[in-house]
From TrEMBL:
Family affiliation: Belongs to the aspartate/ornithine carbamoyltransferase superfamily. ATCase family.
Species assigned in the record: Dictyobacter aurantiacus
Biological role stated in the UniProt entry: Catalyzes the condensation of carbamoyl phosphate and aspartate to form carbamoyl aspartate and inorganic phosphate, the committed step in the de novo pyrimidine nucleotide biosynthesis pathway.
Keywords (A to Z) from UniProt: Pyrimidine biosynthesis, Transferase
UniProt entry tagged with the keyword Transferase: yes
Name of the protein in its database record: Aspartate carbamoyltransferase
Pfam families found in the cross-reference section: OTCace, OTCace_N
Length: 330
């Protein structure tokens, strides 16, 4: 049951079965029925991409990719998604160095210019809340949040949940271990919102104390009915998790290099030994990537590690589906 109400970011529209023209800013906008729709479309998109089927679904449409923060996967997978469907992109990475932003143009002006050229804007920004601000500034085209500061990353959650759904055939009754930087990881923040839409999910959150979820997030997420159990030591990892979700310490969110080093030194790294000790044989190990001293490359050969396999590919398929739905072509 969807119970989110009080914590809802007020002026964000729920999808309520109709994606067309909607800004996608927070995972709070999704209900179970919307995810069912998106996953059905994702399966069609997977077929198109896997078979290199020419598609004209987004023909004639332009999508602006406006990335104020570094990105490899999210940027390339959005670009691939548009192009796989026959659409085109305008791509601006690091606009603060290479565009009129460097001359002092306001954020709102940049957004309004981009919307004059395009049919949708995909935005990544280091400031939490920037996607919502962009959605307000753009009156004619939808804005899709590709990660805003340490706030949310809803399209990462779409691919993470699709990966879980493909593997387990359900999104309820799951036990997971979310490790790393729970305080700053926007992918953890959106994923917990997503998993809280389903019954009986239990999430262990493993982090050093200074990187645990903010108390506001902890309380508002628990209010939705998801069971959150915070742990701080390797020894407390339960052995019956369906999945592990590892994240790096978000260096760019720290005030000083020293604070970052301190936090990094307290992190539990996913190694073959850790899997041997605590992971069930049927679980999967996920990571939104990039990994920075978070998952040992020696784990890659383990079949349970999906981050360089299905998880990464699902990023293209789910983004294809989202774009087709938001642009009203499906
Ligand atoms: C994540 C992000 O940018 O939040 N990366 C991604 O989009 N796959 C995770 C991260 O940077 O740690």
């Amino acid at each position: 049951m969807f119970q989110a109400i009080s914590h809802l970011q007020t002026d964000i529209e729920m999808i309520h079965g109709d994606f067309k023209g909607k800004d996608i800013v927070s995972f709070d906008q999704f209900e179970v029925a919307d995810l069912n729709t998106l996953f059905t479309v994702t399966r069609q998109m997977k077929r198109i991409a896997e078979n290199n089927e020419p598609s004209r679904l987004l023909e004639g449409l332009l999508v602006g990719l406006l990335f104020f923060e570094p990105s490899s996967r999210t940027f390339s997978s959005f670009s691939a998604a548009v192009k796989r469907l026959g659409g085109q992109t305008i791509e601006m990475q690091n606009p603060e160095a290479f565009s009129s932003v460097s001359k002092g143009e306001t954020f709102e002006d940049t957004i309004q210019v981009m919307e004059a050229y395009t049919n949708a804007i995909v935005l990544r920004h280091r400031i939490s809340g920037a996607a919502k601000q962009a959605a307000r500034a753009a009156s004619f085209v939808p804005v899709i949040n590709a990660g805003d500061g340490n706030n949310e990353h809803p399209t990462q959650t779409l691919l993470d949940m699709y990966t879980l759904y493909e593997r387990f055939g359900r999104l309820d009754n799951l036990t997971g271990l979310l490790a790393g930087d729970a305080l700053n990881s926007r992918t953890i923040h959106s994923l917990l919102r997503g998993l809280s839409l389903y019954e009986n999910n239990t999430m262990y959150v493993l982090s050093p104390r200074q990187l645990q979820l903010s108390r506001d997030d902890f309380v508002s997420l628990q209010d939705r009915g998801i069971r959150l159990i915070e742990i701080h030591r390797e020894e407390d990892i339960p052995q019956d998790c369906d999945f592990w979700y590892w994240t790096r310490v978000q260096k760019e969110r720290f005030a000083s290099a020293e604070e970052y080093r301190q936090a990094q030194s307290e992190i539990v790294v996913a190694t073959p030994e850790l899997l041997n000790k605590y992971a069930s044989k049927d679980m999967i190990l996920m990571d939104p990537l990039p990994r920075v001293a978070s998952v040992d490359p020696a784990v890659d050969a383990d079949e349970r590690a999906v981050y360089l396999r299905s998880q990464i590919r699902n990023g293209v398929y789910t983004r294809m589906a989202l774009l087709a739905l938001v642009l009203g072509r499906i």
